[in-house]
Amino acid sequence: MSMTIDARTDTDAAGTAAPPAGTRRFRVFRYKRGDERPHYETFEVPVGYRTTVFEALRWIQVHRDRTLALRHSCLHASCGTCGVRVNGKEALACVTMVHDVGREITVEPIANVPVLTDLVVDMREVFERFPDDHPIVRGSEFLDDADTPEGIASYERYEDCIECGLCVSACPVVVTAERYVGPAALAWGERVLEEPRGAEVANLLSWANAPDGVWRCHAIFECTAACPSGVNPAARIMSLRGTLLGRRLRKQPRGSDPT
Amino acid sequence: MALVVLITVHMVAHHFVVQGTGGLRSYRQVLEYVANPAIFTIELLFLVAVTVHAMLGLRGVLFDLATGERAREWISRALVVLGVVTVAYGVALIVALASRA
Amino acid sequence: MSDAIDERRSRGPVQRKGLGPRPVGWLDPRGRTLGHLAFVANRITGLGLVFYLYLHLAVLSLLLPGGEAWNDFLELATTTVFLLLDVLLLFGLLYHGLNGLRVTLVGTGYVPNRQKALWWAGAVIGTLVLALAAIRILGES
After folding, report:
1. Could C35 and A29 be called an inter-chain contact, meaning their C-beta atoms sit closer than 8 Å?
2. What is the distance between the alpha carbons of residues C108 and A253, in angstroms, rounded to a whole number?
């Protein structure tokens, strides 16, 4: 399969042909099993007006180095698979425009998670932080009473969280406190409390109330800034803390039914 | 919240009320100041509030670094001891000064 | 969870943000948002104030032997350098106090989405108070 980024066919918003954007220097994190330490490799990548970081990485993979490992799936910011750090900031590669980043672009895997190879990390580190009895994947809701246009039978609502791990990468507390449950899992816990949908939630508050739960959060808000999906994990963690404080002040026992 | 009020009172009363001596009290003025029962009480409350807050703050910083339950138990115990010693010293100091006025 | 943590190091190298060893990884402000900078400043001023607490108790202990030691201290305490340090102390107190109020409001779930606005409000109030106090403090020297 040949893959080219054809700058000449790019058009701007007005529909007129935009001039080619030239090349960008990509500095890409590289690591393979058995390497003593990671290193960076530099590539000059031709980019167009709307080239994304993911497309540039794929160009490198196709035209320069077949061994570059990266993950992707949906290519439209709904699966969370392509999470990376671009010039130090967490981002989904599939929707991050090279044009918006700069001339020198450093791409690294997300932080605080073991690197398997190149830009691919071991996402178990993120998923294992979630409460055992409340997995992130649960039945979506059919909105039977929602007004639907002709041809649409019903709406099905999914959770905002796409389990990309960008919040875990951005969180400075995860750097120092390795056992901190983290923003993704705590935000999910609050979401389950907000809308249990029949789940047993009695032990969820005790899980959140641990020293490595909500009380490790220092209200830094890097997670909310990094989230590409509008989950606002920091606000959800604060809401959980408010709930726990309120229960403590009313002297309710921990782990009792919060509803 | 209480700490914010207490520290404001403490700073204003000590450093922005006294005329002369660069806003600081002389030896005699300090003794007379702490001998006042209301001031004595406020300063004691301030000492306790500041020490509790300081110990809790240190606990927060150290708990980030210590990941084991045993280590955290030791940290908590050590900070309780440090806090008690700090308050005890402060109380002894203020009582000693107040009694000399 | 603890098994996962113990096992993670065998899965692969863990990249993290921040310079230096892991325990001070939070200190590096590069590429961070306002919330992080606020936290770093809060922690630094907090640790500074803990140090000052004990320094203050030590200085007040100068009152115990009698008036002479205290009066010697007062001479030092009214020098310009010392007064500048006092202004620095006041900055630490104001920052930690006002940011602390912000963290209290935000951290208990009241206004988490106003955390930036609260920081700026505190910054304006703190700057005004510090400026007025600094004029008063340094004006006395």
Report:
1. no
2. 19
pLDDT value for C67: 81
Tokens of A168: 């875990």
pLDDT tens for each residue of A136-186: 767 667 777 778 888 888 777 778 899 999 999 999 998 888 889 999 999
ipTM of the complex: 0.84
Digit-coded pLDDT (tens) for B69-82: 888 999 999 999 99
Average pLDDT over residues A201-229: 91
Inter-chain residue contact A178 with B67, CB threshold 8 Å: yes
In this prediction the pTM is 0.84
A240 burial via Cβ count (<10 Å: 0-12, 13-18, 19+): buried
Nearest CA distance, C79 vs chain B (angstrom): 9
Cα–Cα distance, A74 to C101 (Å, whole number): 43
Closest in B7, B27, B64 to C97, CB measured:
B7
* pLDDT reported for residue A52: 96
A218 contacts on B by Cβ (under 8 Å): 60
Nearest by Cα to A80 from A70, A94, A69, A66: A94
3-class DSSP string for chain C: CHHHHHHHHHHCCECCCCCCCHHHHHHCCCCCCHHHHHHHHHHHHHHHHHHHHHHHHHHHHHHCCCHHHHHHHHHHHCCHHHHHHHHHHHHHHHHHHHHHHHHHHHHCCCCHHHHHHHHHHHHHHHHHHHHHHHHHHHHCC
Average per-residue pLDDT for chain A: 85
Hunting for tokens 């590409």 — which residue is that? A228
